[in-house]
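User: I've been trying to design a sequence by hand for this structure and keep getting stuck. Would you show me what you'd pick, starting by listing the structure so we're on the same page?

Assistant: Good idea, let's start from the same input. This is the structure you sent:
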């Protein structure tokens, strides 16, 4: 059986677990105002489509 170095290394023993192994700040972050604006734009777009203004 291969040792841990050949498989990519071992998890830190002091923290343990994959959840704490990966950095929490490595994800994609968006401002909450941006999410609210995008949600509002999608809602308005859906209302316009449902009203039949755009012949799609």
């Amino acid at each position: 059986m291969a040792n841990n170095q050949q498989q990519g290394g071992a998890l830190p023993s002091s923290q343990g677990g994959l959840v704490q192994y990966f950095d929490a700040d490595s994800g994609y972050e968006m401002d909450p105002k941006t999410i609210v604006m995008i949600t509002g734009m999608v809602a308005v777009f859906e209302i316009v489509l449902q009203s039949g203004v755009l012949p799609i």
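That's my pick for every position. To get oriented when you compare it with your attempt: The mean pLDDT is 73. The radius of gyration is 23 Å.
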